[in-house]
Amino acid sequence: MQPEGTVNPMKKEPVRVREEDSSKRSASFCEVVLGYNEAEALKEASRCIQCKDPSCSRGCPVGIDIKKFIYQITRKEYKLAYLTLREKNDFPSICGRVCPAEYQCRKTCVFTKKGSAFASEQAINIHFLERFAGDYGKNNDLDIPIKKNEKLSKYKVAIVGSGPAGMAVAGELARQGIRVTMYEGLHKPGGVLRYGIPPFRLPRDILDFELDSLSKLGARLVPNYIIGKAKGLQELLDEGYDAVFLGLGAGIPTFLGIKGENLCNVYSANEFLARVNLMSAFKFPEFHTPVNIGKSIVVIGGGNTAMDAARAALRIQKIRGMAPDTTVLYRRTEIEMPARRLEIEHAREEGVKFRFLSSPEEFSGDETGFVKKLRCLECKLGEPDSSGRRRPIAIPGSDYEVDCDMAVIAIGLLANQVLTRVTPELATDKYSDVIVNKETMETSMKNVYAGGDIVGGEGTVIEAMGMAKKASRAIIKYLLQK
Ligand SMILES: Cc1cc2nc3c(=O)[nH]c(=O)nc-3n(C[C@H](O)[C@H](O)[C@H](O)COP(=O)(O)OP(=O)(O)OC[C@H]3O[C@@H](n4cnc5c(N)ncnc54)[C@H](O)[C@@H]3O)c2cc1C
Fold first, then answer.
1. Whose CA is nearest to atom 10 of ligand 1?
2. What is the pLDDT of residues 69-94, one digit of tens each?
3. pLDDT digits over 432-447, tens only?
4. Nearest residue to 355 via CA among 374, 340, 370, 372
5. Three-state SS at 354
6. Checking DSSP bridges between strand 390-394 and strand 266-268, what pairing results, if any?
7. How large is the average pLDDT for residues 410-431?
8. Under CATH, what is the fold of the domain 254-413?
9. What is the pLDDT averaged over residues 248-255?
10. What pLDDT does residue 285 have?
């Protein structure tokens, strides 16, 4: 029975997270979601009914003990909550900001109706609580205890790629005393966390803090160094690395294959976002890399990449004093969009327009070679395809044209192949993803492990980190037996 004077947690309203005002934020790259303060976190945590058999953890790709860390928050044991998170997740401040919780832990929360496509509003805001505890750990310089193992300090491991997968392996191994070197092709580390996800979703001080923690643990970073070009994989092993981890990611854009796609101002989302996020093109000329921005921008796609590109493009239009005119074009309907629900909501609040059930057919340009128009066909939805989503079917004769002096194509990414192409001993599948033993993450090459998007294609940050943890355990086991 409910004690007198207390509110049944099932009836408590979810605590809305504070956000920067949409008119203010959409003309800057400052963080949109401001997070919970202590009072808000306590209130939201008190809604958790501490299920006997918590289904939420089953929705988390790394199996965080969600019930426990939320309970610790309710008791104001923030340090313990942080340590609980860190048992399974090395970067809670990052995941608390970018995890698609509505498809993961919140979707399996007992407050979400069974069979829903994504979490219901009533589901506990686990990700905001994770962010709260993660930021508490960061702001108080907490770390999990270092368990350096003398037996391991003589070994060295090379990590190729410094995205979330590479970062997670670096942390796991360096904490054990293993000498770790991270090779990164770009001039700055972080992978998609730096070049893909804009700072208004993941402020760079959060990412830099995690990277600094890795260097404090002794992990060495070698930037501007492409394995497969500057040095081969076998060369790394021959140089005396005891094991190698490949966290190469999926950084190759896919294109529509339609006429006019080569016109000027038609970008791949990767190029556009890398210019903006990695090279700070939104601050041109203060930063050297420019980016052309159109008056009528069309972004093609329905995932996080499309949302990031649209929201970044609209911001730059506003920063440059242009009238905002950015439209997302998607072949299915909103319900099938794979983007995080919050990103869709934020994009809309900021002024991004959406046109659903539209298939791009042909770009046309002017005499100078710049894109000007996009011809589309209207679509209807057919039976579900292999992705489980209803297939879009273009309707013949339903052509219409939109103004489009800039387009961003965000329809998916493929494996980075610079290394795999020159390493035939490394077995890959038909998508050029690296094939691994799912238990150990070991590849077809002895002592070479892989994880993240290079295994199984475009995924999520937490999934990449989960694979990294698995690989780290296998590497440590192997080194201890060596
Ligand atoms: C725009 C965008 C938005 C996203 N938003 C979200 C989100 O909100 N939430 C979420 O969970 N997921 C999101 N994702 C997916 C998520 O970012 C990825 O699943 C995750 O980053 C994969 O991590 P990774 O370490 O495997 O690869 P990456 O992050 O891609 O990192 C790979 C790194 O390896 C480097 N590299 C590659 N080849 C070599 C080589 N031969 N030598 C040296 N270095 C090399 C690359 O330069 C890169 O830095 C998003 C993806 C994109 C593109």
1. 460
2. 999 999 999 999 999 999 888 899 99
3. 999 999 999 999 999 9
4. 374
5. strand
6. unpaired
7. 95
8. FAD/NAD(P)-binding domain (3.50.50)
9. 95
10. 87
pLDDT at 469 over 90: yes
Distances, alpha carbon 185 to alpha carbons 73, 162, 404, 427, in Å = 40, 9, 33, 22
| Radius of gyration (C-alpha) of the chain in whole angstroms | 23
Q: Ligand 1: list residues with CB < 6 Å.
A: 98-100, 160-166, 183-186, 191-192, 196-197, 226-228, 247-249, 251, 273, 304-305, 308, 340, 416, 418-419, 452-454, 459-462, 464
Reference 192, options 83, 140, 85, 269; nearest CA is 269
Pairing mode, strands 358-365 and 371-384: antiparallel
Distance CA 155, CA 311 (A): 45
Separation of alpha carbons 285 and 282, rounded Å? 9
How far is the first Cα of the chain from the last one, in angstroms, to the nearest whole number?
A: 58
Strands (DSSP E) contained in 367-453 are: 371-384, 390-394, 400-403, 406-409, 413-414, 448-450
Extents of the domains making up the chain: 9-139, 150-251+415-481, 254-413
Q: What is the CATH number of domain 9-139?
A: 1.10.1060.10
How many angstroms separate the alpha carbon of residue 443 from the centre of ligand 1? Answer: 19
Identical fold at 150-251+415-481 and 254-413? yes
Identify the CATH assignment for 150-251+415-481 out of 3.40.640.10, 3.50.50.60, 2.60.120.10, 1.10.275.10: 3.50.50.60
- How close is the Cα of 224 to the center of ligand 1, in Å? 16
Q: Given ligand 1 and candidates 461, 462, 469, which is best to mutate, with the most ligand atoms within 8 Å of its CB?
A: 461
Print burial letters for 32-43: b (CB count within 10 Å at least 16), e (below 16).
bbebbeeebbbe
**pLDDT at residue 1 above 50?**
no
Residue type (1 letter), 88: K
Q: What is the Cα–Cα distance from 211 to 215, expressed in whole angstroms?
A: 6
Does residue 243 carry a pLDDT above 70?
Answer: yes
User: Which one of 304, 413, 448 would you pick to mutate in the ligand 1 pocket, going by the greatest count of ligand atoms within 8 A of its CB?
Assistant: 304
Given this model, what pLDDT does residue 241 score? 97
pTM metric for this prediction = 0.93
SS3 434: strand
Which one-letter DSSP state was computed for residue 173?
A: H
User: Residue 372 has what pLDDT?
Assistant: 97
Residue labelled with tokens 């038609």: 266
Q: How far apart are CA 353 and CA 404, in angstroms?
A: 13
The pairing of beta strand 400-403 with beta strand 371-384: antiparallel
